[in-house]
Amino acid sequence: MVDYTYYIILGAILFCLGLIGFVSRRNMILMFLCTELMLQGVAVTLVGFNRHWIILGKGLDGQAFVVFLLVVAAAEAALAMSLVLLLQRYKPTLDVDQFSEMRG
Amino acid sequence: MQSIQSGIVAFVILSAVGLFFMMPRGKSSLFSRIGLFAIIITLIFAGSGVIRQSVDVGIEKVLFALFGGISILSAVLMICQKKALYSALYFVLTVVSVAALFILQDAEFLGVALVLVYAGAIMVTYVFVLTLCKQEGNDDYERKASWPLMGTLMGFTLLGAFTTLLFDVTFAGSAINSDVAVQAGAVEIVRDSGTTLKMGIEIFKENALALEIAGVLLLIAAIGGISMIKQAKVNV
User: Fold this and answer.
1) Tens digit of pLDDT for each residue in B177-201?
2) CA B35 to CA B22: how far, in whole Å?
3) What's the complex ipTM?
4) Scanning A24, B28, B170, B211, which has its CA 20 to 30 A from the CA of B164?
5) B54: phi then psi, degrees, rounded to nearest 5
6) Which fold does the domain B2-187 belong to in CATH?
């Protein structure tokens, strides 16, 4: 039986990789994808902790949390994509540096 | 615990160097091969460390090392691609391997839900929007990562802090010695009827308010998404 510590470390690795990708890439959709990767890391951590709770006999709260995390991720993805398509009307590019100045 | 400390430091430094080499630059690909090689070596050592850590090498450890390695490798490849569509596909691979990890953790409902919702709905949305978007101007922003050194240092400092803290807190306690307790420890919550029934009870009985709020959130997101795209009619 794999100890739940390794799952938490795996979740931390995925979270930090998503953070690095979010900071160092400039494509708007790729930045959103790295946000989703961070959410995946959190989900792995939650399910890892929940395994320990199952052993202690305490229920499936962590997995319910992940279900609501999926709901929030889906809502955020839908709104983010419509925001990206809205921004396409101003400038036909996906580079966030082009949007770094406020419109007069 | 001195060997674990040095192991963590070596792991973090080697993978930081490998990731920094893999970040997209304008021109050459020799560095990215070196970086990929360094990251694969690091993952092999970490995976073998995980497999060696306990008394018996059950199949679960091998599966954890395999799927964990695939998910980390595809996440690394995802953030280092020059084309955004390839990153989306690598992210789908990450999601599928994380779903496999969930099934290893006795969360089979969540594994299937993850594949259905994430890889099936969210990633399809991303891929469609990627192909719909116009990208004029110079393509240079996709070829070079901005601030690769600072980003890598920041991320891996955070990762080193996480792993050091985790190993200090839990290995000092009794979590790692609890293999016997784990085996005897009555997984009756999930063993008799699977997770789906228990998840239904959990969501609908214990977290009913959160369920209603989630429904309202999805409704607001749908209304907001449609109302943002709808263009106002101009009366001439």
Assistant:
1) 445 444 444 455 556 667 888 888 8
2) 5
3) 0.93
4) A24
5) -110, -175
6) Four Helix Bundle (Hemerythrin (Met), subunit A) (1.20.120)
